[in-house]
Amino acid sequence: MRLNKFLSACGVASRRKCDEVILEGKVFVNGKQISQVGLSINEKKDVVTLDGKTLALPKQFVYLKMNKPKGYACTASDERGRKTIFELVDCDVRLIHVGRLDYNTEGLIFLTNDGDFANLVTHPRFHFEKEYRVSVEGEMKESELAVLRNGVVENGVRMPKAKVKFLSFDGKNTKLSVVIDEGQNHQVRRMFDAIGRSIVLLKRVRIGDVLLGGLTRGKTKPMTAEEIAFFKGEK
Ligand code: URA
To answer: How far is the CA of 74 from the centre of ligand 1 (A)?
Structure first.
């Protein structure tokens, strides 16, 4: 088995990220530091360590969905000492987050120890939709929504198109549904920054066919077989 596949199956990260971990020289096979990608190992015999810990293939994969609260970082350990989403999960298995939500964004995020699944959900090739509820200060004009739909221009570069639906205006804030199928860093916030609008609340409510639903803020629950199958194409 390729080393990056093994690392990913052990829940280290997606396969692409595992290549980066290998290139950083953090992985040892039978005590020898590995610094090039593409190596194959015998997963039954070879001893693979990462940061001094021996890795083993998990017996069972875990797939959770979480309602991430605002004020939690999507990282295993935060350099700035902020709270992380892993403090909210009670699970013996080492998990990774699938994609990322900003510190101040809330809503749906998946956690798993299946690196291939993480790769599948986040890979740009598959274009899984992500739907957000966005509250924006003030009343937004139809012309502004049209600009968002066409792809805003940021520093001379056109950002991807978005599906944007007006939901309500309460006299103070406009509530919108925004659907994107790419996962650029801070994509939604950048779209609104580019048109000079300030986001008051950003919440992810759907990834692909999987809804946040009534999951309580800060809680996790196992994904159903059908939800997992949606991404793996086993439906
Ligand atoms: N877009 C953003 O700007 N932030 C998120 O957390 C997710 C999407």
So the answer is: 12
